[in-house]
Amino acid sequence: TNGKTTTVTLLHNLFTALGYKAGLLSTVRNLIGQSPVEATHTTPDAVSINALLREMADAGCDYAFMEVSSHAAHQRRIAGLHFAGGIFTNISHDHLDYHKTFKAYIDAKKMFFDILPKTAFALVNADDRRGAVMLQNTRARKYTYSLRSMASFKAMILENSISGLHLDVDGREVFSRLIGEFNAYNLLAAYGAAILLGQDEVETLTALSQLRAAEGRFDYVAGPQGRRTGIVDYAHTPDALEKVLSTIHQLRQGNNRIITVVGCGGDRDKAKRPKMAKVACDYSDLVVLTSDNPRSEAPEAIIADMQAGVPAYATQKVLVATGRRDAIRAACKLAGPDDIILVAGKGHEKYQEVNGVRHPFDDKAVLAEALAE
Fold first, then answer.
1. Rounded to the nearest 10 degrees, what angle do helices 4-17 and 181-196 cross at?
2. How far is CA 130 from the centre of its chain?
3. Is 222 helix (H, G, I), strand (E, B) or coil?
4. Dihedral sign (CA 323, 329, 333, 336)
5. What angle do CA 13, 17, 21 make, to 5 degrees?
6. Mean pLDDT throughout 220-224?
7. Is the pLDDT higher at 308 or at 224?
8. How far apart are CA 224 and CA 285, in angstroms?
9. Which of 141, 281, 334, 356 is the most buried (most CB within 10 A)?
10. Percent of the chain at pLDDT exceeding 70
């Protein structure tokens, strides 16, 4: 599912801004108040979850916001927990390697809503046709959010640009630094949940307008004097890369070019390598193929696998720079004043893994440095 990490991070930051102490359990990080605890899987096992929640309670947290994956619901990692509410963002064909069929995947998500108590709320995206399915057997109080139809919480996009979103939420105007339609959904979900948890509408919207995106998710880096725009994103699947690039397409003004820097991880799903290159070519004016986390594989071999996916029409617009720093610098040098540079695949990671060793590497810092040159 796309949107869980951002929504849960928004909620944690929102409640912190509203003056509460809140815990966060997400794929990117676990926080007790503002103190980080190492995150490994989307949802840790039942014992670790309870241990983390215990620490949060002992530290005086009023709320805990948790990203619950379909795997976790299926493996009962959240068994015995009493949620005050649940949010369904949307479903995409992800994790089918685990669930085997799409139906099993939907059922696993639904299981979460089936176990919510009567006192909880179930808030679902009415614009995903499976939202209604999630509510079928829940005992929780039912609410919806939507950009397209009648719902308990309704928003309209007034303006969607590279600098942010201008929204109408339940009749009030609000500006957010988050970018793209998918973030309008994430903001609306966080807003709805906050209201259902008893927060004030105006205070909630004011606090939301000051929040930034989850680190490494469509992370915006402006070049000096606003010339050239850099974006860092965690997209490391063909589907996610396509989403990010099509969002950039919707936002670009006039004839600015899109330059994409992308690689694929070593010792991982090889089938996606040619697909990643193809998506990058289909949506970009220039593509720089490079290393991601090569792990035990030779970076050149990974790049060769990716090159197999470059369509015949696109060979002229593809460059290869094995070193990731070199690739990012090359993209910035080739960019004109209004071009947009996307550095995809690693997002928030602060390292590059080569032959079992993690070398410090931060896409956002390297990109900011290259843009300033």
1. 50
2. 20
3. strand
4. positive
5. 75
6. 88
7. 308
8. 22
9. 281
10. 95
